[in-house]
């Protein structure tokens, strides 16, 4: 019979230690060890397991030369959701383990239920948080046609594998990994050891049966996926669902992908009938205003392989409450402080005496350095209270010495701006090298320093 004992597990890396320590001996994280009850095998249990293993026929792997390994075409399971397919690199790879994380209420369960209902193959949707009736209510709201999707409300991994063996689905969705529990571990569901054990069992099941499994994961208050960091190392793909619940747009990013690029991004719009794919996000991220207003500039950015045109909004007002305020929504606040310092030093603009508020329209967050040129243009426009024409757009990085640096894939940015009907685009002079301007119908204005920007726009 197994003996019960307790051990201490690190919530950061998942390492175990027999006694509590202030610092994890593996990852050196402080105050990350928590006590959990584990089961220790006795000598009789080990002998029985060894006896069962010896009676099974095992295959022994042998090393092969790279040239001797045959290259075969990888079949991918195509879903009706084109954005989801593109983020994964063309579809779901059989036997892969995919983890989707995001804030509560952002739409993780809705997205995966929507995909599971529309796949024309057998899908097993396992829910440990909702009952079958609750899932039925949601499915009725987002789907009207019949579906070959099976619902299972279960948290025990042994029962899940038994039902999956009988059903033999083409895809398994688990909502969520934090609610599962393994009978081999005697700790509570959601603990470090339970998440690690359940993820390991699901990984072995996916690889042995060549069935892809999608895991939905909760996140902590710091924004990371709940559970040990080992969970992200076990899975093949990590997707992050982002967005503000007060806005309709959602962004699905790829943080890790063993079968594709990690630069891809998908945009969805939350509606009453579920999540709708946004095939042309540039037209939705640009505000619909009847007249030109100061403090607004259009930036040509890239998210993965997709060019986007988004609106940057700035508000500069006189500081009347002591120290000037600095606020940024959807943009790095430290980079905004750097851009204000460059304008103060190189352009002699008095931003040090003013409150500055910056917003990226649409409720999304962008980290592309090419936004710098549009942001400083919006800041100067708001400071001088002079509107920038709505048919102008910008793409350029600003350096500490006030130079306008070149950005990558400038031809795709110009082509997207030309397609959407913009007339003038401001870029760095260093981007002109090797650029064929004859294939664009838009006027391109190039310059090298911040000082020239004010003359070109407002001079």
List keywords for this structure.
459 residues; alpha/beta; Rossmann fold; 3 domains; nine-stranded mixed β-sheet; seven-stranded mixed β-sheet; 12 helices
Structure write-up:
With 459 residues, the protein is an alpha/beta fold. The protein has three domains: 3-52, no CATH class; 76-279, Rossmann fold; 283-458, 2-Layer Sandwich (Ribosomal Protein S5, domain 2), CATH 3.30.230.10. The protein is 28% helix and 26% strand. The chain has twelve helices and 21 strands. It has helices spanning 43-55, 82-88, 108-118, 132-142, 157-167, 192-209, 230-234, 281-285, 333-346, 372-384, 410-419, 450-458; strands at 3-10, 16-17, 33-40, 97-102, 123-127, 149-153, 171-175, 213-217, 237-242, 249-257, 265-271, 274-277, 296-303, 306-318, 326-329, 354-360, 392-394, 397-398, 404-405, 424-428, 443-447. It has a nine-stranded mixed beta sheet with strand order 6-5-7-8-4-9-10-11-12, sandwiched between helices. Strands 15-16-14-13-17-20-21 form a seven-stranded mixed beta sheet. The protein has a three-stranded antiparallel beta sheet with strand order 2-1-3, with no helix packed on it. β7 (171-175), α6 (192-209) and β8 form a beta-alpha-beta unit. The model is unreliable at 41-57 (pLDDT under 50).
